[in-house]
Amino acid sequence: MKSNPGRHCFLIVLILLILVSVGGALAFGVAPRQQNSPANDTLTGNWAVKTPNADGTFRATYFNLKQEGSRITGYIRSTQFYYLITDSTGGPDGFTLTGTMKDGKSERKVLYEGKVVGNELHLATRRRPDAPLTELTAQRVPTGEGAMPARIEPPALHKVKDNGLARTPPMGWNSWNKFAGRVDDATVRSIADAMASNGMKEAGYLYINIDDTWEGGRDAQGNIQTNKKFPDMKALADYVHSKGLKLGIYSTPGPDTCAGYEGSYGHEAQDARTYAAWGIDYLKYDWCGARTIYTDEEMPAVYQKMGDALQATGRPIIYSLCQYGRQDVWKWGPDVGGNLWRTTGDIRDAWDSMTKIGFGQNDLAQWGKPGHWNDPDMLEIGNGAMTETEYKTHISLWSILAAPLLAGNDLRSMSPAILAILTNKEVLAIDQDKDGKQGARVWQSGEQEVWRRQLSGGAQAGRFSIERPQMRELP
Ligand code: GLA
After folding, report:
1. Taking CA 377 as the corner, what is the angle to CA 353 and CA 281, rounded to the nearest 5 degrees?
2. pLDDT, tens digit (0-9, with 9 covering 90-100), for 325-372
3. Among 80, 101, 173, 195, which residue has the least CB neighbours within 10 Å?
4. Nearest alpha carbon to residue 315 among 118, 165, 110
5. Which of 59, 213, 258, 261 most suits a substitution to test ligand 1, by most atoms within 8 Å of the C-beta?
6. Strand bridging mode 224-226 / 106-117
7. With a 6 A CB cut-off, is 176 part of the ligand 1 pocket?
Protein backbone atom coordinates (compact mmCIF):
# COMPACT_ATOMS: atom_id res chain seq x y z
CA MET A 1 0.00 0.00 0.00
CA LYS A 2 1.28 3.45 -0.87
CA SER A 3 2.01 5.49 2.21
CA ASN A 4 0.43 8.90 2.49
CA PRO A 5 2.47 11.32 4.63
CA GLY A 6 -0.37 13.88 4.84
CA ARG A 7 -2.69 11.24 6.24
CA HIS A 8 -0.16 10.08 8.85
CA CYS A 9 0.24 13.63 10.02
CA PHE A 10 -3.56 13.93 10.28
CA LEU A 11 -3.79 10.73 12.30
CA ILE A 12 -1.12 12.02 14.68
CA VAL A 13 -3.13 15.18 15.16
CA LEU A 14 -6.21 13.07 15.91
CA ILE A 15 -4.36 10.88 18.39
CA LEU A 16 -3.02 13.93 20.21
CA LEU A 17 -6.51 15.35 20.34
CA ILE A 18 -7.81 12.14 21.86
CA LEU A 19 -5.02 12.05 24.42
CA VAL A 20 -5.80 15.48 25.75
CA SER A 21 -9.54 14.86 25.92
CA VAL A 22 -10.65 14.03 29.45
CA GLY A 23 -14.01 13.74 31.16
CA GLY A 24 -17.18 13.80 29.05
CA ALA A 25 -17.55 11.00 26.54
CA LEU A 26 -17.77 13.41 23.62
CA ALA A 27 -15.11 15.78 24.85
CA PHE A 28 -12.50 16.57 22.25
CA GLY A 29 -9.08 18.10 22.74
CA VAL A 30 -8.68 21.79 22.19
CA ALA A 31 -6.23 22.91 19.55
CA PRO A 32 -4.61 26.32 20.00
CA ARG A 33 -6.72 29.20 18.71
CA GLN A 34 -5.43 30.80 15.56
CA GLN A 35 -5.83 34.29 14.29
CA ASN A 36 -7.50 34.64 10.91
CA SER A 37 -5.08 35.47 8.11
CA PRO A 38 -5.08 35.04 4.32
CA ALA A 39 -3.24 31.75 4.90
CA ASN A 40 -5.93 30.18 7.07
CA ASP A 41 -9.18 31.41 5.55
CA THR A 42 -8.96 28.38 3.22
CA LEU A 43 -11.46 26.80 5.58
CA THR A 44 -14.18 29.18 4.47
CA GLY A 45 -16.52 27.64 1.90
CA ASN A 46 -19.10 24.98 1.20
CA TRP A 47 -17.82 21.42 1.64
CA ALA A 48 -19.56 18.09 1.24
CA VAL A 49 -18.90 14.47 2.13
CA LYS A 50 -20.83 12.34 -0.36
CA THR A 51 -21.22 8.62 0.14
CA PRO A 52 -22.84 6.76 -2.75
CA ASN A 53 -25.75 4.41 -2.03
CA ALA A 54 -26.05 1.30 -4.22
CA ASP A 55 -29.29 2.67 -5.73
CA GLY A 56 -27.79 5.62 -7.63
CA THR A 57 -28.43 8.17 -4.85
CA PHE A 58 -25.88 9.42 -2.37
CA ARG A 59 -25.86 10.41 1.26
CA ALA A 60 -24.42 13.87 1.88
CA THR A 61 -23.11 15.84 4.82
CA TYR A 62 -22.52 19.53 4.11
CA PHE A 63 -20.13 21.76 6.06
CA ASN A 64 -20.83 25.39 5.29
CA LEU A 65 -17.97 27.12 7.07
CA LYS A 66 -16.74 30.64 7.58
CA GLN A 67 -13.54 31.49 9.38
CA GLU A 68 -14.17 34.76 11.21
CA GLY A 69 -11.16 35.82 13.25
CA SER A 70 -10.50 33.00 15.65
CA ARG A 71 -14.03 31.58 15.28
CA ILE A 72 -15.54 29.24 12.76
CA THR A 73 -19.23 29.82 12.09
CA GLY A 74 -21.75 28.23 9.73
CA TYR A 75 -23.68 24.97 9.74
CA ILE A 76 -23.41 21.24 9.31
CA ARG A 77 -26.29 19.60 7.43
CA SER A 78 -26.30 15.86 7.63
CA THR A 79 -29.27 14.02 6.10
CA GLN A 80 -32.19 14.72 8.48
CA PHE A 81 -30.15 16.96 10.82
CA TYR A 82 -29.11 20.61 10.63
CA TYR A 83 -26.66 21.89 13.20
CA LEU A 84 -25.51 25.46 13.72
CA ILE A 85 -21.87 25.69 14.68
CA THR A 86 -21.92 26.93 18.25
CA ASP A 87 -18.32 26.39 19.28
CA SER A 88 -15.00 26.01 17.53
CA THR A 89 -11.28 26.03 18.05
CA GLY A 90 -8.39 26.34 15.65
CA GLY A 91 -8.25 26.88 11.92
CA PRO A 92 -7.33 25.14 8.67
CA ASP A 93 -4.32 23.38 10.18
CA GLY A 94 -6.38 21.76 12.91
CA PHE A 95 -9.81 22.64 14.20
CA THR A 96 -12.72 21.34 16.21
CA LEU A 97 -16.37 22.18 15.62
CA THR A 98 -19.43 21.70 17.80
CA GLY A 99 -22.80 21.74 16.03
CA THR A 100 -26.01 22.13 18.00
CA MET A 101 -29.65 21.71 17.00
CA LYS A 102 -32.97 21.68 18.80
CA ASP A 103 -35.00 18.53 18.25
CA GLY A 104 -38.37 18.93 19.93
CA LYS A 105 -37.65 19.30 23.60
CA SER A 106 -34.14 17.97 23.42
CA GLU A 107 -30.88 19.28 22.06
CA ARG A 108 -28.58 17.33 19.75
CA LYS A 109 -24.89 17.95 19.35
CA VAL A 110 -22.21 16.77 16.96
CA LEU A 111 -18.49 17.23 17.25
CA TYR A 112 -15.99 17.16 14.42
CA GLU A 113 -12.30 17.68 14.31
CA GLY A 114 -10.21 18.09 11.19
CA LYS A 115 -7.88 20.09 8.99
CA VAL A 116 -7.54 21.28 5.43
CA VAL A 117 -5.27 19.03 3.34
CA GLY A 118 -4.70 20.41 -0.15
CA ASN A 119 -8.13 20.86 -1.69
CA GLU A 120 -9.80 18.56 0.79
CA LEU A 121 -11.22 18.85 4.26
CA HIS A 122 -10.24 15.86 6.38
CA LEU A 123 -12.66 15.26 9.24
CA ALA A 124 -13.28 12.85 12.07
CA THR A 125 -16.26 12.35 14.34
CA ARG A 126 -17.87 9.77 16.57
CA ARG A 127 -21.29 8.40 15.62
CA ARG A 128 -21.91 7.78 19.31
CA PRO A 129 -19.89 8.96 22.30
CA ASP A 130 -18.46 5.46 22.82
CA ALA A 131 -17.88 4.69 19.13
CA PRO A 132 -14.47 4.78 17.47
CA LEU A 133 -13.61 7.82 15.36
CA THR A 134 -15.03 7.80 11.84
CA GLU A 135 -12.87 9.58 9.28
CA LEU A 136 -14.43 11.50 6.40
CA THR A 137 -13.16 13.52 3.47
CA ALA A 138 -15.10 16.53 2.19
CA GLN A 139 -14.66 18.26 -1.17
CA ARG A 140 -15.56 21.82 -2.06
CA VAL A 141 -19.00 22.12 -3.67
CA PRO A 142 -20.70 25.17 -5.23
CA THR A 143 -22.17 27.85 -2.97
CA GLY A 144 -25.80 27.09 -2.22
CA GLU A 145 -25.58 23.33 -2.75
CA GLY A 146 -27.11 21.56 0.22
CA ALA A 147 -28.54 24.80 1.67
CA MET A 148 -31.59 24.35 3.87
CA PRO A 149 -34.75 25.28 1.96
CA ALA A 150 -36.68 28.32 3.19
CA ARG A 151 -39.31 27.69 5.81
CA ILE A 152 -42.87 27.25 4.55
CA GLU A 153 -45.44 28.36 7.13
CA PRO A 154 -47.70 25.50 8.18
CA PRO A 155 -51.41 25.94 7.40
CA ALA A 156 -54.09 26.98 9.88
CA LEU A 157 -55.66 24.04 11.67
CA HIS A 158 -59.00 22.57 10.68
CA LYS A 159 -60.54 19.14 11.06
CA VAL A 160 -59.79 16.72 8.20
CA LYS A 161 -62.77 14.53 7.34
CA ASP A 162 -62.52 10.89 8.40
CA ASN A 163 -61.50 8.89 5.30
CA GLY A 164 -63.52 5.89 6.51
CA LEU A 165 -60.54 3.51 6.25
CA ALA A 166 -58.95 1.16 8.79
CA ARG A 167 -62.10 0.26 10.70
CA THR A 168 -59.95 -2.49 12.24
CA PRO A 169 -56.18 -2.13 12.78
CA PRO A 170 -54.31 -2.40 9.45
CA MET A 171 -52.54 -5.72 8.82
CA GLY A 172 -49.73 -6.36 6.40
CA TRP A 173 -45.96 -6.24 6.07
CA ASN A 174 -43.35 -3.49 6.12
CA SER A 175 -39.85 -3.67 4.67
CA TRP A 176 -37.86 -1.75 7.30
CA ASN A 177 -37.25 -4.13 10.20
CA LYS A 178 -35.71 -6.85 8.02
CA PHE A 179 -34.48 -5.14 4.87
CA ALA A 180 -33.90 -1.44 5.75
CA GLY A 181 -32.05 0.09 2.74
CA ARG A 182 -31.88 -3.24 0.87
CA VAL A 183 -35.56 -3.33 -0.11
CA ASP A 184 -36.12 -3.34 -3.88
CA ASP A 185 -38.72 -4.16 -6.51
CA ALA A 186 -37.86 -7.88 -6.68
CA THR A 187 -38.04 -8.25 -2.90
CA VAL A 188 -41.43 -6.55 -2.73
CA ARG A 189 -42.82 -8.76 -5.52
CA SER A 190 -41.59 -11.95 -3.88
CA ILE A 191 -42.89 -10.88 -0.48
CA ALA A 192 -46.28 -10.24 -2.13
CA ASP A 193 -46.10 -13.72 -3.70
CA ALA A 194 -45.39 -15.23 -0.29
CA MET A 195 -48.15 -13.33 1.50
CA ALA A 196 -50.68 -14.24 -1.16
CA SER A 197 -49.89 -17.94 -1.03
CA ASN A 198 -48.82 -18.86 2.52
CA GLY A 199 -52.11 -18.27 4.34
CA MET A 200 -51.33 -14.76 5.55
CA LYS A 201 -53.64 -13.10 3.04
CA GLU A 202 -56.50 -15.36 4.16
CA ALA A 203 -55.67 -14.51 7.77
CA GLY A 204 -56.19 -10.81 6.98
CA TYR A 205 -52.76 -9.46 6.04
CA LEU A 206 -53.30 -7.03 3.18
CA TYR A 207 -50.75 -4.22 2.91
CA ILE A 208 -47.24 -4.57 1.50
CA ASN A 209 -45.50 -1.41 2.68
CA ILE A 210 -42.26 -0.10 1.22
CA ASP A 211 -40.46 1.92 3.87
CA ASP A 212 -37.61 4.41 3.44
CA THR A 213 -35.00 4.27 0.60
CA TRP A 214 -37.22 3.94 -2.49
CA GLU A 215 -36.86 7.65 -3.34
CA GLY A 216 -34.79 9.21 -6.10
CA GLY A 217 -34.61 12.94 -6.74
CA ARG A 218 -37.17 15.15 -8.51
CA ASP A 219 -37.56 15.88 -12.19
CA ALA A 220 -37.62 19.40 -13.66
CA GLN A 221 -41.33 19.71 -12.79
CA GLY A 222 -40.67 18.67 -9.20
CA ASN A 223 -42.18 15.19 -9.56
CA ILE A 224 -40.68 12.67 -7.14
CA GLN A 225 -38.68 9.93 -8.87
CA THR A 226 -37.88 6.44 -7.70
CA ASN A 227 -34.27 5.31 -7.48
CA LYS A 228 -32.69 2.37 -9.35
CA LYS A 229 -34.10 -0.20 -6.93
CA PHE A 230 -37.65 0.62 -8.06
CA PRO A 231 -37.67 0.97 -11.85
CA ASP A 232 -41.46 1.31 -12.19
CA MET A 233 -43.59 1.94 -9.12
CA LYS A 234 -46.88 1.83 -11.05
CA ALA A 235 -46.02 -1.58 -12.50
CA LEU A 236 -45.10 -2.76 -9.01
CA ALA A 237 -48.43 -1.53 -7.61
CA ASP A 238 -50.24 -3.30 -10.46
CA TYR A 239 -48.40 -6.50 -9.59
CA VAL A 240 -49.23 -6.28 -5.88
CA HIS A 241 -52.87 -5.50 -6.71
CA SER A 242 -53.00 -8.49 -9.06
CA LYS A 243 -52.29 -10.64 -5.99
CA GLY A 244 -55.29 -9.16 -4.19
CA LEU A 245 -52.99 -7.11 -1.95
CA LYS A 246 -52.36 -3.39 -1.47
CA LEU A 247 -49.18 -1.32 -1.72
CA GLY A 248 -47.88 1.18 0.81
CA ILE A 249 -45.14 3.78 0.57
CA TYR A 250 -43.16 6.10 2.84
CA SER A 251 -42.20 9.77 3.00
CA THR A 252 -41.57 12.68 5.36
CA PRO A 253 -42.89 16.22 5.72
CA GLY A 254 -39.26 17.36 5.93
CA PRO A 255 -36.73 17.89 3.15
CA ASP A 256 -34.95 14.61 4.03
CA THR A 257 -36.14 11.22 5.21
CA CYS A 258 -34.51 9.54 8.19
CA ALA A 259 -32.21 7.61 5.83
CA GLY A 260 -31.33 10.85 4.02
CA TYR A 261 -33.55 10.45 0.93
CA GLU A 262 -35.77 13.05 -0.76
CA GLY A 263 -38.72 14.15 1.39
CA SER A 264 -42.08 15.71 0.50
CA TYR A 265 -41.28 19.18 1.87
CA GLY A 266 -42.96 21.79 -0.35
CA HIS A 267 -44.30 19.04 -2.64
CA GLU A 268 -46.99 17.52 -0.44
CA ALA A 269 -49.94 17.82 -2.84
CA GLN A 270 -47.80 16.85 -5.83
CA ASP A 271 -46.45 13.76 -4.07
CA ALA A 272 -49.94 12.71 -2.95
CA ARG A 273 -51.09 12.93 -6.58
CA THR A 274 -48.08 10.88 -7.69
CA TYR A 275 -48.83 8.19 -5.11
CA ALA A 276 -52.45 8.07 -6.24
CA ALA A 277 -51.40 7.82 -9.90
CA TRP A 278 -49.06 4.95 -9.05
CA GLY A 279 -51.86 3.15 -7.20
CA ILE A 280 -50.55 3.54 -3.66
CA ASP A 281 -52.94 2.52 -0.87
CA TYR A 282 -51.06 3.47 2.32
CA LEU A 283 -48.62 6.23 3.32
CA LYS A 284 -46.33 6.16 6.34
CA TYR A 285 -45.29 9.77 6.93
CA ASP A 286 -42.21 10.03 9.13
CA TRP A 287 -41.21 13.27 10.91
CA CYS A 288 -37.44 12.84 10.24
CA GLY A 289 -36.01 15.98 8.60
CA ALA A 290 -39.08 18.06 9.46
CA ARG A 291 -37.37 18.55 12.83
CA THR A 292 -34.92 20.91 11.12
CA ILE A 293 -37.71 23.29 10.08
CA TYR A 294 -40.65 22.91 12.45
CA THR A 295 -41.21 22.77 16.19
CA ASP A 296 -43.08 19.89 17.79
CA GLU A 297 -46.00 22.27 18.44
CA GLU A 298 -46.35 22.66 14.67
CA MET A 299 -46.69 18.92 14.06
CA PRO A 300 -50.50 18.87 13.81
CA ALA A 301 -50.55 21.51 11.07
CA VAL A 302 -47.69 19.87 9.20
CA TYR A 303 -49.39 16.46 9.31
CA GLN A 304 -52.73 18.00 8.39
CA LYS A 305 -51.18 19.29 5.16
CA MET A 306 -50.53 15.76 3.91
CA GLY A 307 -53.86 14.56 5.35
CA ASP A 308 -55.61 17.13 3.15
CA ALA A 309 -53.39 16.31 0.17
CA LEU A 310 -54.19 12.58 0.36
CA GLN A 311 -57.92 13.23 0.58
CA ALA A 312 -57.78 15.65 -2.34
CA THR A 313 -56.55 12.79 -4.57
CA GLY A 314 -59.87 10.99 -4.16
CA ARG A 315 -58.02 7.67 -3.72
CA PRO A 316 -58.52 5.76 -0.45
CA ILE A 317 -55.06 5.92 1.13
CA ILE A 318 -54.44 4.90 4.73
CA TYR A 319 -52.53 7.65 6.50
CA SER A 320 -49.96 6.47 9.05
CA LEU A 321 -48.30 9.15 11.20
CA CYS A 322 -44.81 8.41 12.44
CA GLN A 323 -43.42 11.01 14.84
CA TYR A 324 -42.48 8.65 17.66
CA GLY A 325 -45.42 9.55 19.93
CA ARG A 326 -44.34 13.13 20.49
CA GLN A 327 -46.73 15.98 21.29
CA ASP A 328 -49.47 13.61 22.54
CA VAL A 329 -50.23 12.64 18.93
CA TRP A 330 -53.15 10.41 20.02
CA LYS A 331 -55.05 13.59 20.94
CA TRP A 332 -54.84 15.17 17.47
CA GLY A 333 -53.99 12.29 15.10
CA PRO A 334 -57.60 11.72 14.01
CA ASP A 335 -58.20 15.45 13.38
CA VAL A 336 -55.37 15.67 10.83
CA GLY A 337 -56.68 12.63 8.95
CA GLY A 338 -54.47 10.02 10.63
CA ASN A 339 -55.62 6.40 10.67
CA LEU A 340 -52.77 5.38 12.95
CA TRP A 341 -49.91 7.04 14.77
CA ARG A 342 -46.73 5.69 16.25
CA THR A 343 -46.69 6.00 20.02
CA THR A 344 -42.99 5.30 20.60
CA GLY A 345 -39.48 5.29 19.17
CA ASP A 346 -38.31 2.44 16.97
CA ILE A 347 -38.76 -1.15 18.09
CA ARG A 348 -35.80 -3.57 17.98
CA ASP A 349 -35.85 -7.35 17.72
CA ALA A 350 -35.16 -7.73 21.44
CA TRP A 351 -37.25 -8.75 24.43
CA ASP A 352 -36.35 -5.56 26.33
CA SER A 353 -37.36 -3.30 23.46
CA MET A 354 -40.57 -5.16 22.65
CA THR A 355 -41.79 -5.38 26.26
CA LYS A 356 -40.78 -1.84 27.15
CA ILE A 357 -42.95 -0.64 24.27
CA GLY A 358 -45.78 -3.15 24.60
CA PHE A 359 -46.27 -3.01 28.36
CA GLY A 360 -45.82 0.77 28.24
CA GLN A 361 -49.05 1.44 26.33
CA ASN A 362 -51.46 1.26 29.26
CA ASP A 363 -52.24 4.97 29.47
CA LEU A 364 -53.20 5.23 25.80
CA ALA A 365 -56.09 2.74 25.80
CA GLN A 366 -58.80 5.39 25.54
CA TRP A 367 -57.38 6.89 22.33
CA GLY A 368 -57.53 3.91 19.97
CA LYS A 369 -60.79 3.35 18.11
CA PRO A 370 -62.09 2.19 14.73
CA GLY A 371 -60.41 4.25 12.01
CA HIS A 372 -57.77 5.68 14.37
CA TRP A 373 -55.23 3.45 16.11
CA ASN A 374 -52.31 3.72 18.48
CA ASP A 375 -49.32 2.14 16.73
CA PRO A 376 -46.65 0.68 19.05
CA ASP A 377 -44.51 -0.04 15.93
CA MET A 378 -44.14 -2.97 13.58
CA LEU A 379 -43.68 -6.61 14.48
CA GLU A 380 -40.28 -8.22 14.89
CA ILE A 381 -41.69 -11.76 14.87
CA GLY A 382 -39.40 -14.11 12.96
CA ASN A 383 -36.39 -11.80 12.81
CA GLY A 384 -34.44 -14.19 14.99
CA ALA A 385 -33.37 -12.48 18.19
CA MET A 386 -36.31 -13.53 20.37
CA THR A 387 -37.59 -17.00 21.16
CA GLU A 388 -40.85 -18.37 19.78
CA THR A 389 -42.40 -17.96 23.23
CA GLU A 390 -41.34 -14.32 23.23
CA TYR A 391 -42.74 -13.78 19.74
CA LYS A 392 -46.05 -15.26 21.00
CA THR A 393 -46.03 -12.66 23.77
CA HIS A 394 -45.29 -10.01 21.11
CA ILE A 395 -48.32 -10.79 18.94
CA SER A 396 -50.62 -11.47 21.92
CA LEU A 397 -49.74 -8.16 23.50
CA TRP A 398 -50.10 -6.26 20.21
CA SER A 399 -53.53 -7.86 19.76
CA ILE A 400 -54.70 -6.84 23.23
CA LEU A 401 -53.51 -3.34 22.30
CA ALA A 402 -55.62 -3.36 19.11
CA ALA A 403 -52.35 -2.53 17.36
CA PRO A 404 -51.71 -2.52 13.63
CA LEU A 405 -50.04 -5.82 12.75
CA LEU A 406 -47.31 -5.21 10.20
CA ALA A 407 -45.04 -8.22 9.96
CA GLY A 408 -41.40 -7.18 9.66
CA ASN A 409 -39.66 -10.42 8.77
CA ASP A 410 -38.71 -12.21 5.55
CA LEU A 411 -42.00 -13.91 4.66
CA ARG A 412 -40.27 -15.99 1.96
CA SER A 413 -38.13 -18.01 4.32
CA MET A 414 -39.82 -18.13 7.72
CA SER A 415 -40.32 -21.38 9.61
CA PRO A 416 -43.78 -22.99 9.92
CA ALA A 417 -43.69 -22.09 13.64
CA ILE A 418 -43.27 -18.38 12.88
CA LEU A 419 -46.00 -18.51 10.22
CA ALA A 420 -48.27 -20.18 12.78
CA ILE A 421 -47.63 -17.35 15.26
CA LEU A 422 -48.39 -14.71 12.64
CA THR A 423 -51.59 -16.43 11.52
CA ASN A 424 -53.00 -17.66 14.83
CA LYS A 425 -56.74 -17.22 14.26
CA GLU A 426 -57.77 -16.64 17.88
CA VAL A 427 -55.12 -14.00 18.44
CA LEU A 428 -55.89 -12.19 15.17
CA ALA A 429 -59.61 -12.23 15.97
CA ILE A 430 -58.84 -10.33 19.18
CA ASP A 431 -56.70 -7.80 17.34
CA GLN A 432 -59.35 -7.31 14.69
CA ASP A 433 -62.37 -7.21 17.02
CA LYS A 434 -64.87 -4.86 15.45
CA ASP A 435 -65.50 -2.76 18.55
CA GLY A 436 -61.87 -1.67 18.44
CA LYS A 437 -61.52 -1.19 22.19
CA GLN A 438 -57.88 -1.20 23.21
CA GLY A 439 -57.04 -3.36 26.23
CA ALA A 440 -55.32 -2.25 29.41
CA ARG A 441 -53.60 -3.61 32.50
CA VAL A 442 -55.90 -4.83 35.26
CA TRP A 443 -53.35 -6.37 37.62
CA GLN A 444 -49.62 -6.41 38.14
CA SER A 445 -47.38 -8.06 40.64
CA GLY A 446 -43.69 -7.79 39.97
CA GLU A 447 -42.97 -9.38 36.63
CA GLN A 448 -46.50 -10.72 36.18
CA GLU A 449 -49.24 -8.70 34.57
CA VAL A 450 -52.84 -9.32 33.55
CA TRP A 451 -54.24 -7.29 30.70
CA ARG A 452 -57.85 -7.35 29.61
CA ARG A 453 -59.52 -6.36 26.39
CA GLN A 454 -63.27 -5.92 26.08
CA LEU A 455 -64.47 -7.65 22.92
CA SER A 456 -67.65 -7.23 20.94
CA GLY A 457 -70.62 -9.42 21.92
CA GLY A 458 -71.41 -7.98 25.34
CA ALA A 459 -70.47 -10.50 27.98
CA GLN A 460 -67.76 -12.10 25.89
CA ALA A 461 -64.88 -10.21 27.37
CA GLY A 462 -61.44 -11.42 26.38
CA ARG A 463 -59.00 -11.87 29.22
CA PHE A 464 -55.30 -12.60 28.74
CA SER A 465 -52.58 -13.25 31.22
CA ILE A 466 -49.09 -12.59 30.02
CA GLU A 467 -46.18 -13.56 32.16
CA ARG A 468 -42.84 -12.20 31.25
CA PRO A 469 -40.70 -15.33 30.88
CA GLN A 470 -38.37 -15.71 33.84
CA MET A 471 -36.18 -18.18 32.01
CA ARG A 472 -35.59 -17.63 28.36
CA GLU A 473 -35.37 -20.44 25.89
CA LEU A 474 -32.36 -20.38 23.66
CA PRO A 475 -33.26 -19.95 19.98
C1 GLA B 1 -37.61 6.00 11.39
C2 GLA B 1 -38.90 5.21 11.61
C3 GLA B 1 -38.65 3.76 11.24
C4 GLA B 1 -38.23 3.68 9.77
C5 GLA B 1 -36.98 4.53 9.56
C6 GLA B 1 -36.62 4.65 8.08
O7 GLA B 1 -36.60 5.60 12.25
O8 GLA B 1 -39.32 5.33 12.95
O9 GLA B 1 -39.84 3.00 11.44
O10 GLA B 1 -39.27 4.12 8.96
O11 GLA B 1 -37.18 5.86 10.04
O12 GLA B 1 -35.56 5.51 7.84
Report:
1. 160
2. 999 999 999 999 999 999 999 999 999 999 999 999 999 999 999 999
3. 101
4. 165
5. 258
6. unpaired
7. yes
